[in-house]
Specification:
- Chain B: InterPro entries: BP-dependent_transpt_permease, MetI-like, MetI-like_sf.
- Chain B: It comes from Shinella lacus.
- Chain B: Belongs to the binding-protein-dependent transport system permease family.
- Chain B: Residues 87-280 form the ABC transmembrane type-1 domain.
- The complex is a heterodimer of chains A (317) and B (295).
- With 317 residues, chain A is mainly alpha-helical.
- Chain A has 13 helices and no strands.
- The radius of gyration of chain A is 24 Å and the shape is globular.
- In chain A, 38% of the residues are buried.
- Chain B contains twelve helices and no strands.
- Chain B has helices spanning 8-13, 17-22, 25-46, 79-115, 117-132, 135-146, 154-180, 184-191, 196-207, 209-232, 244-250, 259-286.
- Chain B is globular.
- Classes of the chains: A mainly alpha (317), B mainly alpha (295).
- Chains A and B meet through helix 1, helix 6, helix 7, helix 10 and helix 11 of A and helix 5, helix 6, helix 10, helix 11 and helix 12 of B.
């Protein structure tokens, strides 16, 4: 199979997956037995309020019609109107997505450092005390719930040693320094949560690569250890970590919900929680769809990168 | 295969000093931590210093003291008593949810991996789609969809954990089944004319046991975090049930006045997960499997 056909099939499968996700979300939220309007408003809602909501959500139409209506609008970029605020969802989502993207980007940069540095130290000091200490720390951090880690960092750096703001409530009025300072704690939390998964994988794959023939050869050629590590070993060791990074992006979307909540950061995650609390079904559908799309896209990119970076994979499938 | 048929009593006798010394270190530490948690949880069911919902056990918001090692919350409930009583709730929810996910995921994955063809293709696409929804978002959406009547019920939490886990476990089970399906003894069973169920149940399941056991342990490690996160966000078990995640969120505004009130239950949760993780690590080494961490 040629690379192009392989890539095309991956893209097709990703689109199919997203289509199924939309069916699933619709089924879970709107096609479960029972009245949707009553579930949103609670059992003591007045008949009038239920009637208004039903017409707002087009509940008088059959589920299949509503699904295709929603899907068609969604594909054309019309995300509908939020029930709770009455505003178009695209307007509500836009700035929140930008905020979360900023936060994620910041977190991702910290993640790269936090994942690479300990893994390199461990792999080059295999079996020594440093290796074990980092392993133990990684295991402990791996076991910390994200909401607990966020609360601990908040306590350490905003209460015990108050050098950073406890709340990351930024707005258009904040200067970029304020925004950056506010984002440090949430970004570091997210970065640590992602890095602990990657460190293990990266350490193991780096050790494997350092034992391989081509690294031996590079050493025998008399290259400096640093050049061997960064030029020959690291690029090859990163491929297995790519998958973890894609998984991590999936985690990032979930983690963002909790971390943004702890620090009251006005992003996509807090919007999802607000939408859920208000039972704003159109807004919930849109946010969950977008988060699934991000996850699928991240996996697609990781797959494509893996195919392009490792010629062996091209032939094997 | 013959060791598996030995009687339970005989297998139990195998746990002697020599065998204990041969087990990997992480497994031992993990097992000890988990045993301590189990004991703590059992004691917490029958006895706590104060009632877990008893208001006015002491002065509200007063910090830690000998009488109240984790301080008191806003309505004067002894946080340590709540923490103790919550231990069995966290453990039971985690086990029940993971077992449900395990049963559903294993059945689906093994069948789909063994049968293959269209059934496998369709199942895989659905599994893929479910995994694509970030697990926390999926869990929260299912909780909302269940409606106000079920909200906060333990049954709902168990179902949600099970449903979030099932597709992830199914993927692992399927891969194992596909590999085992190519072995000779499966072909022999097919020639004997055994039915699909019987082959999946008697040939494939026992041989996938190691993979599944490690997977179970791995999922179990994460279940308290997932359940805690739901509680922390206010979508988990209904108050006043002292689930640890919910307690951390309830007492978060005491962070400055009395940190131990927040970090006490937090430490409990973290040590439980550390115990599970060490246990999983050791188990996967003993069974010659590689635990795969990740969402």
């Amino acid at each position: 199979m040629s690379v192009f056909r392989l890539l095309a099939s991956r893209i097709l499968f990703s689109a199919l997956t997203l289509l199924l996700v939309s069916v699933l979300i619709f089924l879970i939220l709107e096609a479960l037995p029972g009245d949707v309007a009553t579930r949103i408003l609670g059992r003591d809602a007045t008949a009038r309020a239920l009637e208004v909501l039903r017409s707002q959500l087009h509940l008088d139409q059959p589920a299949l019609v509503r699904y295709f209506h929603w899907l068609g609008d969604f594909l054309r970029g019309d995300l509908g109107v939020s029930i709770a605020t009455g505003r178009p969802i695209a307007d509500v989502l836009g700035p929140r997505i930008v905020n979360t993207l900023l936060l994620s980007l910041f977190a991702f940069v910290i993640y790269l450092v936090l994942a690479l540095v300990p893994a390199i130290i461990q792999a080059t000091n295999r079996g020594k005390a440093v290796d074990n200490v980092i392993s133990v720390i990684t295991l402990i951090l791996l076991s910390l719930p994200d909401f607990l880690l966020a609360t601990m960092l908040l306590f350490l750096f905003a209460v015990a040693v108050p050098i950073l703001p406890a709340l990351a409530t930024i707005s258009e009025a904040s200067t970029w320094q304020e925004t950056l300072r506010a984002m440090v704690l949430p970004a570091v939390t997210l970065a640590i949560m992602m890095a602990v998964y990657a460190i293990r994988v990266l350490r193991d794959s780096l050790i494997e690569v350092l034992r391989s023939d081509y690294v031996r050869l590079a050493e025998l050629k008399g290259l400096r250890p640093r050049a061997v590590l960064f030029r020959h070993a690291l690029p090859n060791a990163i491929v297995p970590a790519l998958n973890v990074t894609a998984l991590n992006l999936g985690f990032l979307i979930g983690g963002v919900v909790i971390v943004e909540r702890v620090f009251s950061y006005p992003g996509f995650g807090t919007l999802l929680i607000d939408a859920l609390q208000l039972r704003d079904i159109p807004l919930i559908k849109a946010t969950v769809m977008i988060s699934a799309a991000v996850y699928v896209a991240a996996n697609l990119v990781a797959d494509v990168l893996a195919i392009l970076l490792q010629p062996r994979l091209r032939a094997s499938r | 295969m013959s060791t598996i048929t030995s009687s339970p009593a005989k297998r139990f006798a195998g746990f002697d000093a020599a065998r204990w010394r041969a087990t990997p270190g992480p497994f031992k530490v993990g097992a000890i931590i988990l045993l301590a948690h189990a004991l703590f949880a059992i004691i917490g069911v029958f006895w706590t210093p104060y009632g877990f919902a008893e208001m006015g056990a002491g002065l509200p918001l007063s910090g830690a003291s000998w009488q109240h090692p984790m301080g008191l919350d806003q309505i004067g409930r002894d946080v340590f008593s709540r923490f103790m009583h919550g231990a069995h709730i966290v453990l039971l929810l985690a086990f029940a949810g993971t077992i449900l996910g395990m049963v559903a995921g294993t059945a689906l994955g093994l069948l789909s991996g063994y049968i293959g063809g269209w059934f496998d293709e369709i199942t895989q696409r659905i599994v893929e789609a479910m995994i694509s929804i970030p697990f926390l978002a999926l869990a929260l959406v299912m909780i909302i969809a269940a409606g106000p009547a079920l909200a906060g019920e333990p049954v709902l939490i168990v179902f949600v954990v099970g449903l979030v886990y099932a597709p992830r476990i199914a993927r692992i089970a399927r891969a194992a089944a596909m590999e085992i399906a190519t072995r000779e003894y499966v072909a022999v069973a097919e020639l004997r004319g055994e039915g699909t169920w019987s082959i999946v149940w008697r040939e494939i399941l026992p041989n996938a046991a190691n993979v599944l056991l490690v997977e179970f342990s791995l999922r179990l490690s994460y279940a308290p975090i997932l359940i805690g996160a739901l509680g922390f966000l206010g979508f988990g078990i209904r108050p006043p049930t002292p689930e640890w995640g919910l307690m951390i969120s309830e007492n978060r505004n005491l962070l400055i006045a009395s940190p131990v009130t927040v970090f006490g239950p937090g430490l409990g949760l973290a040590s439980l997960v550390i115990g599970f993780n060490l246990f999983t690590d050791g188990l996967s080494r003993m069974l010659g499997q590689r635990a795969v961490a990740g969402a």
